[in-house]
Amino acid sequence: MTIAYASLETHFAQQNALSGALSMLHWDAAVMMPESSAPVRGEHLAALSQAIHENINDPRVGDWLDAAESDAASLDAWQQANLHEMRRKWQHATSVDVKLVREQALATSESEAFWRGARRNNDFKSFAPYLKRVVALVREEAAAKASALNLLPYDALMDGYDSGTRMAEVDALFARLNAELPVLREKAMAFQAENLVVKPIAGHYPQENQHKASEIFMRALGFTGRLDISVHPFCGGVPGDVRITTRYNEADFVVAMQGVLHETGHALYEQNLPAKWRSQPVGDARGMSVHESQSLFVEMQLCRSREFLRYAAPILAESFGQTDDDLSPENLYRLGIRVKPDFIRVNADEVTYPSHVILRYELEKDLISGKLEVEDLPEAWNAKMQEKLGITPPSDALGVLQDIHWPGGSFGYFPTYTLGAMIAAQWAQALKAQLPAWGEQVEKGDFSAIVGWLKTNVHEKASSASRQELLKQATGEPLNADIYLKHLHDRYLSA
Amino acid sequence: MTIAYASLETHFAQQNALSGALSMLHWDAAVMMPESSAPVRGEHLAALSQAIHENINDPRVGDWLDAAESDAASLDAWQQANLHEMRRKWQHATSVDVKLVREQALATSESEAFWRGARRNNDFKSFAPYLKRVVALVREEAAAKASALNLLPYDALMDGYDSGTRMAEVDALFARLNAELPVLREKAMAFQAENLVVKPIAGHYPQENQHKASEIFMRALGFTGRLDISVHPFCGGVPGDVRITTRYNEADFVVAMQGVLHETGHALYEQNLPAKWRSQPVGDARGMSVHESQSLFVEMQLCRSREFLRYAAPILAESFGQTDDDLSPENLYRLGIRVKPDFIRVNADEVTYPSHVILRYELEKDLISGKLEVEDLPEAWNAKMQEKLGITPPSDALGVLQDIHWPGGSFGYFPTYTLGAMIAAQWAQALKAQLPAWGEQVEKGDFSAIVGWLKTNVHEKASSASRQELLKQATGEPLNADIYLKHLHDRYLSA
Q1: Nearest-CA distance A113 → chain B (Å)
Q2: What is the distance in angstroms between the Cα of A47 and the nearest Cα belonging to chain B?
């Protein structure tokens, strides 16, 4: 091992620990902090971001990278992968100059703040100039990263969230879904209109009891960290101190339960990353699409199955005592698979969700390339909504204004949701083939073999392999849209 | 304003924000963090400490200080005071080299860990080598700071906790107490044996009800931040997000109540520091003795008064419902003033507490100067305990092993407890003279004028004046032991 490589490990450990501190403060801000403390917290976050920025921009880092790469043969496979991830992180961080980073921080913070009011007042027009500024700066960022990373501009943005994800692959996968999903949706709705009798949830489910049941499920799945409450559920903290949140609606326990299961999927990934590499870039989760594959595997593949609901139903019935609702496994299953197009992405079901994502993917590619301008967004949004989901939003509040991603400057993130759903289906297919007893185990609440499979094939590999390699090693093939479509056919076109 | 001074303000704002982040993570570690996350939190704290250290050791800081001081006439009074505090902080931080800081961190962390077991097993002998190492390193630190700050070694240590506090002053004040307190204690105990009939607390006080009552009191006093639970109660967070903690004993509500009132005193100080100067050294609290004067003013001067207990008694009675205890104001008053020597400092009453502190002050001066060695500590401790409090600990666990301060490397801190108690009495005397209606207001639960007096005379002045100047401005005289002794005479030698 060269001195240069050793210096990089020390340097990136400091980078990692400062980022970890930042993550804990974000958790506190969302879960514990009094609202009136936002300004002083802003100062802490800015100071930490500056320290992180100064650390990665230390002029010695580039020299160390060159020196370590010239002697990479002296490193083992994980060290080599680590060096590769260091270079990638460094390229992303140093390709955009400080002035642009500051302008972006300011523009997105203003735009986010203005967006909240604009969504409430259904006022795209007054919001447009703020978004225009954000898009202009993201275009600059994309151009700078494209040149540093030798990628197309939108690919460079996606790469920031999801290493190695490129339009060349995503376009082809999404084209399959674009063609098949509208047909599947119509068939599923027709089938459900004939066959799906559901007794709706209509009781009172005290928060405390929901919390208790949620804890039973997440502990059974193997998550050992905290569960708290926040306005927007998330998985936060750091490997070594992973924390998830949810919110409770006392009229409907299903939302919180599905949310906790989703975040537990994220949490298990973070929790099971290799402790040995925790301080290094190669020890990070592989990227947002693989991360989402973990949450959606747990939420959609595992916990919406009849097997899981046979295990869960008695726990729910006991948690809520006697209720008039039908908390039978079969009714819970049917509650989870109802298909109906909705204007709002976060309310979408499993069949229609990808169309929401593809709509945004197509629009943001055009926004970044300059084919589309901000003022033309509402019209383009509504046309695509009609084309993909057969509905037209009655207002921009229910259309283009619904998500925080664009006001917040996140472009290139949306595709990871649907890539994650597809990857989750592929893990599930392979896992079921390799663990034929999975169904019986799930019914008994024994998730050790299943989570063990994820641990071995995904969690413990961290960033030592690409997303494409992880899939190949565990499932024998690259990401395959057929597997996802088969999963949807099986679940939605038969009883 | 010079460019050098402006650069210093920017630089110290970063220093302050990083320290604030550190403070929030300490709060989380004590209140929220799962125990198993201690190792990863250790990484975050170490990384932040390193970033803070690098920031203050930036070679430009010394040059800026020189340049700004040479043109100090262009600064206003607060800026000049700020510059003075910057120099002092910089001297403390840069006088000790990194190697010593690292050795101290390692030695105190080992020594603290070993001390827990040694106290449990009453085993001073095995612990002595760890403490010897800590003392050797503190002697080095004291010598380095003495030379940089041009102070005596022990004064240099005290100055790190309490700017401007010197043995010359403390020796004289403590000599008065040393002479008077044993007499006062004997008289008070004799008086109480004749006159003090107390009905002890013996009910069950659910944690939830104690929490509710505590919140009523702290809100009435004006504290607006969080109240949580931790093993060791403390006031944490940062100005702008002050948070206090307590712990509850369901068999005795008095401990938690007194604890919350004490921490509320600290919290009001932090909360009321001038927002305008929050990011700068001059905006910090004045030092540990003034800080303790705020907690002890609220706990001892204000809330152990009959007037406060007339306000508090009905709130307690309502919080706990019907109980068999005597929750009358007079019984609560008597519960709070019982005098009895105890081996353990944190259990000590108001009359005997200073003797505990003076004992430690005398011993640690001798440890630092080299007059006393670690192996001779238990004998010296027990002799002084007999001399000052008339009791001899039956074991080192109840003697020299009781406090975490020395295992943790804190030498020069103890005197601030008793200086704080004396300063609190002096605030109280001045305040009562200037606000003749204070007693009626307290009985009504109206603390606005009293806390307003503290805000004007102490909180809002932050570090713009020395402790000595604060006292002179608000009370017309320097710290005066007579005022404290008069307070004790009045409370403990009459009914």
Answers
A1: 21
A2: 6
ipTM for this model: 0.92
Q: Are B393 and B343 in contact (CB under 8 A)?
A: yes
- Separation CA B272–CA B294 (nearest Å): 12
Distance, C-alpha A433 to centroid of its chain: 26
Do B13 and B279 form a contact (C-beta atoms < 8 A)?
yes
Query: Chain A residues with CB inside 8 Å of B41's CB?
Result: 241
Q: Which of B25, B27, B41, B43 to mutate to test the interface with A (most CBs of A within 10 A)?
A: B43
Structure token digits, residue A260: 């906790």
B229 touches chain A (CB under 8 A): no
Q: What are phi and psi of B334, to 5 degrees?
A: -65, -35
Give the closest residue to B211 by CA, choosing from B248, B263, B252, B242.
Answer: B248
Question: Residue B439: what residue type?
Answer: G
A71: helix, strand or coil: coil
pLDDT in tens, A153-204: 999 999 999 999 999 999 999 999 999 999 999 999 999 999 999 998 888 9
Closest by CA position to B41, among listed A20, A224, A266: A20
Q: What is the CA radius of gyration of chain B?
A: 23
Mutation for testing the A interface, residue in B35, B48, B270 having most A CBs under 10 Å: B48
Catalytic residues of A: 263
User: Using an 8 Å Cβ cutoff, are A95 and A145 in contact?
Assistant: yes
Q: How many helices (H) and strands (E) does chain B have?
A: 20, 3
Residues in chain A with CB shorter than 8 Å from the CB of B238 are 40, 44
pTM: 0.94
Phi-psi region of B445 (alpha: psi -120 to 50; beta: other; left: phi over 0): left
| Chain B residue at shortest CA distance from A19 | B44
**Sign, CA torsion B473/B476/B478/B484:** negative
**Region of poorest pLDDT, from B35-49, B138-152, B437-451:** B35-49
- Closest residue in B to A225 (Cα–Cα): B34
Q: How far off is chain A from B447, nearest CA to CA, in Å?
A: 23
Kindly give the residue spans of alpha helices, DSSP state H, lying in B228-352: 253-271, 288-296, 306-320, 329-336
Q: Which of A13, A24, A51 sits opposite B25 (nearest CB)?
A: A24
CB neighbourhood size of A144 (10 A): 17
Rounded CA-CA distance A436/A218 in Å is: 23
Q: Which of B332, B334, B352 is nearest to B344 (CA)?
A: B352
Q: For residues B31 and B247, is the Cβ–Cβ distance under 8 A? A: no
Domains and CATH numbers, chain B: 3-160 (1.20.58), 161-495 (1.10.1370.30)
Q: How many CA atoms lie within 13 A of A373 on its CB side?
A: 2
Residue A103 contacts by C-beta under 8 Å, 6 or more apart in sequence?
A137
Rounded Cα distance between B452 and B429, Å, is 16
